[in-house]
Amino acid sequence: MFGSNNKPQFALLGPDTGYDAVNSQSDAENLAPLLNAFTENGGLPKMILYSLNPMDNTAIATIMACFQGGGTAGKLQQGIAWWFNDNRPGMRAQLTDLAANGVLGRFMGMLTDSRSFLSYTRHKYFRRVLCELIGEWVEIGQYPDDRRALTKLVEICASTTPMNCSVLVL
């Protein structure tokens, strides 16, 4: 990610005011060696991995799969689409990539940035995107029309309970 691209606006308004941009360089290439170093040293914690670049979703999902286990189901989680991806298309793409490369039923769901009252509306927005996407999969036969399984999946994925874990933003 390129940060603070517009220097005059950065000087006027300061950091984190909307002048960052996605670039084509992937930070996911450093993820596997980092997770491997944790593993080799016996200290791989429960982690949530957030991507700022939508091009990294599949890489993150497949790298995470290499380090799951150790008696903890869903030890590594891919956090919901965030920052540049925190919109309907970004969430749908990230959920689709996660379902294609992992176990959507282990997804931790939406977490709130509780520093902002308005961030709580993201939960409702996320649940609508999630239910719309799963509903489409059921309609076209990509997921069984099993109400009990669907209810369980949506309840897990729409949970707002945070995990006790470390967070890594790529």
Overview of this structure, please?
The structure is a single chain. This protein is mainly alpha-helical and 170 residues long. The chain has one domain (40-169). It contains 6 helices and 3 strands. A 3-stranded parallel beta sheet has the order 2-1-3, with helices on one face. Helix 3 (57-65) runs parallel beside helix 4 (88-101) and helix 4 (88-101) crosses helix 5 (121-139). The chain starts with 6 loop residues before the first helix and ends with a strand. The mean pLDDT is 82.
| Class computed from helices, strands and strand pairing | mainly alpha
Counted by DSSP, the helix tally is 6
Q: Could you say which overall geometry the principal axes of the C-alpha atoms support? A: globular
CA-based gyration radius: 17 Å
Give the DSSP E fraction (strand runs of 2 or more residues): 5-15%
Mean pLDDT: 82
Q: Please describe the biggest sheet, giving its number of strands, its sense, and whether it closes into a barrel.
A: 3 strands, parallel
Instruction: Tally the beta strands.
Output: 3
Question: Strands of the largest sheet, in order across it?
Answer: 2-1-3
Number of domains: 1
Low-confidence stretches: none
Helix content: 40-55%
Distance N to C terminus: 9 Å
**What is the string of SSEs from the N terminus onward?**
HHEHEHHHE
